[in-house]
């Protein structure tokens, strides 16, 4: 068999792999994507963020297809969490009654969503081969030069490429070939037990598509509407309570639901789905980690292959697709001979780590709220003598020492670039909406939302988006079409 060669070969056809493959193929490069399963296949991670739906997916050209798929519209989140005994709601929109162009996301059956992205990659020119398990990388003198994989008939194959991308997710071990180590979070060590229900209760309109997250003694529940009648329900249980999900999973989930009055109420008339794709009760653990290196010459990690942190803020698909966009820009720049590999991939890694860091730090503060039952918020307010609410004082205290000034400065630049988006966030912050919890008016949360807004604005404005500044000295900026990096040249 002749030696096969591509510009890029991607392992894994989840959101990270199909996004990266499509964005590179759209620049005219030859891309092979190898996926172990035959789609549609099951995956967890159903609650999306607006930056994925309106940012990366718009760049991919699947906005219409997603709209036509009929996925439930997620306007924000509803939480029974922290000091408040009552559920509270935040909305992506300035006004929850008005839907702006980027003020919602979708709750998706991942089998359908991932298939849309994978088929789109094929339409964009990617050679997609399903039923092919990648077994290892091929190393040259100083770089990774290709992949080994198994065909459906069991035959071993080799393929060579300028870049190998590991987008094979959480379970594959391919990431080891990039070097460094996978550091598991000491803080986020929970386990998740999850399944699917028919006929669960819905939140009242206009929030019926929201994710509902409910803290209880052993951890927290997600409750995600996936259709008018089907709901994804998962218990995220603290490591100390891991024994509660040992043994019979059906009994374990029942017992956990019984511990949580709000979820019990929502599932009072529901029945668990016990057949088909959604019939299994599944467990996941050890899912919060980051790799110490995200690339080496010839090889790049994106999505869960590189890092993931706790699902409470639904950041997984966002990080997967955003990292794919960052890596695609680097690859496109190198393949076009615009930049050398080190410069391009240093930019990818810096931006990816910053985005991961913003979520990580934010989540740590969010969990402290839950873990500390004597109201950490009250303590933060007392220590800082802050005139704001207790909850807001806590978030701002943590924010001052967490994600750092680069991200804060970046949000300022985004605000300059996009008066519309900044005004929307500010308006939300000053909103009198009684459902809007004070925390979502804090600077830290505004910053996170503005980070997400960067990708959205790029997609909305396209070539009309104003040029941005580098995020670190000597760093690069995004090309007007969003597909590559450019050296920064001050006007
Ligand atoms: P994946 O989606 O895992 O895709 C990887 C692909 O690679 C798969 O199709 C797999 O078959 C393929 N593959 C694996 N090995 C090989 C191989 N050797 N050769 C070829 N192909 C291979 N995220 C959210 O955004 N919202 C949520 O609500 C959410 N909830 C979550 C709840 C839990 C309990 C957990 C653990 C995660 C959750 N996530 C959530 C995270 C989300 O599941 C992931 O971040 C996301 O799926 C990552 O996408 P990916 O493309 O990197 O990997």
UniProtKB/TrEMBL annotation:
Keyword Cell membrane part of the UniProt annotation:
no
Highest taxon of source: Bacteria
Q: What's one GO MF term for it?
A: monooxygenase activity
Its name, as the record gives it, is Halogenation protein CepH
What SUPFAM superfamilies does the annotation carry?
FAD/NAD(P)-binding domain (SSF51905)
Ordered alphabetically, the record's keywords are:
Monooxygenase, Oxidoreductase
Entry similarity comment:
Belongs to the flavin-dependent halogenase family. Bacterial tryptophan halogenase subfamily.
List the InterPro entries hit by this protein, alphabetically. FAD/NAD-bd_sf, Flavin-dep_Halogenase_NPB, Flavin_halogenase
């Amino acid at each position: 068999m002749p030696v096969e060669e591509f510009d890029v070969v991607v392992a894994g056809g989840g959101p990270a792999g199909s996004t990266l493959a499509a964005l590179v193929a759209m620049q005219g490069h030859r891309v092979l994507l190898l996926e172990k399963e035959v789609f549609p296949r099951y995956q967890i991670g159903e609650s999306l963020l607006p930056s994925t739906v309106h940012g990366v997916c718009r760049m991919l050209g699947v906005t219409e297809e997603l709209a036509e798929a009929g996925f439930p519209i997620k306007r924000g989140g509803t939480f029974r969490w922290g000091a408040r005994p009552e559920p509270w709601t935040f909305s992506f929109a300035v006004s929850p009654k008005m839907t702006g162009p980027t003020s919602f996301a979708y709750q998706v059956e991942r089998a359908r969503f991932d298939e849309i992205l994978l088929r789109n990659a094929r339409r964009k020119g990617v050679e997609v081969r399903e039923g092919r398990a990648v077994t290892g990388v091929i190393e040259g003198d100083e770089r990774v030069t290709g992949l080994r994989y198994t065909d459906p008939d069991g035959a071993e194959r080799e393929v060579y490429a300028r870049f190998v991308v590991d987008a094979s997710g959480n379970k594959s071990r391919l990431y080891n070939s990039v070097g460094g180590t996978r550091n598991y979070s000491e803080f986020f060590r929970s386990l998740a037990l999850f399944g699917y229900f028919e006929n669960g209760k819905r939140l009242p309109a206009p929030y019926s598509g929201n994710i509902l997250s409910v803290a209880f003694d052993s951890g927290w529940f997600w409750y995600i509407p996936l259709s008018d009648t089907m709901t994804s329900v998962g218990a995220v249980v603290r490591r100390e309570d891991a024994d509660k999900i040992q043994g019979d999973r059906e009994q374990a989930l029942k017992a956990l639901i019984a511990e949580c009055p709000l979820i019990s109420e929502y599932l009072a008339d529901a029945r668990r789905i016990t057949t088909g794709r959604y019939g299994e009760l599944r467990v996941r653990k050890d899912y919060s980690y980051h790799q110490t290196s995200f690339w080496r010459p010839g090889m790049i990690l994106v999505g869960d292959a590189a890092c993931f942190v706790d699902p409470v803020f639904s950041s997984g698909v966002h990080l997967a697709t955003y990292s794919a966009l960052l890596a695609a820009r680097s690859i496109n720049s190198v393949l076009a001979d615009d930049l050398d590999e080190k410069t391009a991939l240093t930019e990818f890694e810096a931006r990816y780590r910053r985005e991961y860091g913003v979520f990580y730090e934010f989540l740590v503060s969010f969990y402290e709220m839950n873990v500390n039952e004597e109201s950490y918020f009250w303590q933060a307010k007392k220590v800082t003598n802050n005139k704001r609410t207790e909850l807001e004082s806590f978030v701002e205290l943590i924010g001052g020492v967490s994600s750092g000034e680069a991200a804060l400065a970046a949000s300022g630049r985004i605000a300059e670039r996009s008066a519309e988006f900044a005004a929307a966030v500010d308006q939300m912050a000053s909103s009198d909406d009684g459902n809007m919890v004070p925390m979502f008016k804090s600077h830290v949360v505004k910053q996170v939302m503005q980070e997400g807004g960067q990708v959205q604005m790029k997609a909305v404005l396209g070539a009309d988006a104003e040029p941005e500044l580098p995020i670190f000295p000597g760093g690069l900026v995004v090309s007007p079409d969003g597909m590559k990096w450019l050296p920064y040249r001050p006007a």
